[in-house]
Specification:
It is built from six helices and 18 strands. It is of the alpha/beta class. The chain folds into two domains: 95 residues, Elongation Factor Tu (Ef-tu), domain 3; 149 residues, Nucleotide-binding domain of ferredoxin-NADP reductase (FNR) module (Rossmann fold, 3-Layer(aba) Sandwich). A hairpin with a 4-residue loop joins strand 4 and strand 5. Helix 4 runs parallel beside helix 5.
Length: 269
């Protein structure tokens, strides 16, 4: 098994939208991208070709950084939630429209350490990079997923062998996905955790794995302006006092490198 990050220089490309499907509270946008395969955990900077701006003077929005949820055949899939005007425009894309995309970007997930099983932990729209990761690892890789409610939990349909938690108890365990993770590690602690989701969830995963000495790889989703490491708008503090740029030093960063995960460094809940 090998899924090394793509190393070709990313280029800005115009990609045609092939589908925009509702998935509970989210949208699954598919684009034609035959040459854009990427490693699990890498991302793209996306912007609509037209109507990409707001205000009286239609000031352009910044491109949005989105994890690639799946790459199948010639299509790339992205899981989106309407959380503001930029993502709203992407959620409204129609078949035949085009998006400007720069990808693949960032550092993706690494393979599990020898003798350890992979265990996927996701929250909200942050499950996106875990979908493609499970595709590469195999559908038997267990996924623990947490959502605010049953409508958002529909996104779990993208994955196999899922154990669910919801804040309101409408589906699966009533509580947090970190509670599911604690139980899973009680049953079998010889694991390597792969996580992406809201900042508080990632901090819970980091702290739990640190206490139990379980290796973990965290996909952060701090707000990005450029995607190339030039603007330093997505930095997070490392344990050794350095600052890491999520777009180039990550978005996947080893939990052991971080003293904590701030609220701003995660996906929408």
């Amino acid at each position: 098994m090998s899924w090394a990050p793509a190393t070709a220089s990313p280029e800005r490309r115009l990609l045609e939208v092939t589908a925009n499907e509702r998935l509970g509270a989210y949208r699954l946008v598919k684009v034609l991208d035959p040459g854009g395969d990427c490693a699990p955990g890498q991302f793209a900077m996306l912007a609509a070709e037209h109507g990409w701006g707001g205000g009286e003077d239609e000031r352009p929005f910044l491109a949005r950084a989105l994890s690639v949820a799946r790459h199948t055949g010639a299509e790339a899939h992205f899981l989106l939630e309407d959380v503001g005007p930029g993502t709203r425009r992407l959620c409204e894309l129609q078949t035949g429209e085009r998006v400007l995309a720069v990808s693949p970007l960032g550092r993706g997930f690494g393979e599990p350490q020898p003798g350890r099983r992979a265990l996927l932990v996701g929250g909200g729209v942050g499950i996106a990079p875990l979908v493609i990761l499970q595709d590469r690892l195999g559908g038997s890789t267990r996924a623990l997923l947490g959502f605010r409610d049953g409508e958002r939990a529909r996104a779990a349909e993208l994955m196999l062998d899922v154990h669910l938690a919801t804040d309101d108890g409408s589906v699966g365990h009533r509580g947090t996905v970190t509670e599911l993770l604690e139980h899973e590690l009680d049953e079998d602690p010889v694991a390597e955790v792969y996580a992406c989701g809201p900042g508080p969830m990632l901090e819970g995963v980091r702290a739990l794995c640190s206490r139990r000495e379980v290796p973990a790889q965290l996909a952060l989703e701090a707000p990005m302006a450029c995607g190339f490491g030039a603007c330093f708008g997505c930095v997070v503090p490392a344990r050794d006092g350095r600052y890491l740029r999520v777009c180039v030093d990550g978005p996947v960063i080893g939990a052991h490198e971080l003293d904590h995960v701030g609220d701003h460094a995660g996906a929408p809940a």
